[in-house]
Model the fold of this input.
Amino acid sequence: MASMSETNGREISNNTPLAGKVALITGGTRGIGRAIAIKLASIGSAVAICGRDEAKLAAAERELLALGVPAIALRADVTAQSDVTKLVEKVEFALGPVSILVNNAGMGLFGPVHEKTEAEWDQLMDTNVKSVFLVSRAVIPGMIERGGGDIITISSLAGKSVFAGGGVYCASKWAVQGLSGCMAEELREHGIRVSTVCPGSVATEFAGRGPKDSTKVLKPEDVAHAVAMIAMQGPQSFVSEVHLRPPRRG
Done:
């Protein structure tokens, strides 16, 4: 587990829009999660990330601290309730109550449904859906008590459409869309906004369906920009869903 760390001493500018906020990003050591963590830290939020790779956690924590905000990187399996409970407790002890949760942890699995195993199905559903349920459930009571918060889940355009070879993956993202939509209706009266960001193909290490033309895919920073936009929206607005596509078709 990466050690808990404090800010490197630089003052956070008063004009940073997320100053005073605490963001927790799951799967935050690389790709989209890393870009989101850096973006939110750059606009003033204290940032906690989690993952499973000790070396990547330590490197990411150093990078975040260099931005001058309080940051912490913790090892956790977000598909296990005991890990999630400990994760949220440690984050809130070190940084304060979680005001922004970004459910980013996810994996890809593609190919004909009849060629997939039960173990593959369980792994994908646990990573892409169960983790959203567990981590959201862990932070919601505190958000209700405080009267507000943002829960932002990185979904996919695969949660809005279908394609050959995408049966198991699409099922997970359609489930995420349904779960998030229902939580949004349940929590909006408590001042809690639940949103999804649905990107198309993104240029990351994510296990996808093969290499694509780099000019026809999104960058992790594009997704991070959308998350920051949601986190910075005014108190009277509620952006429930964002679709992101590259300008050119892949």
Q: What stands out?
A: The chain has one domain: 22-244.
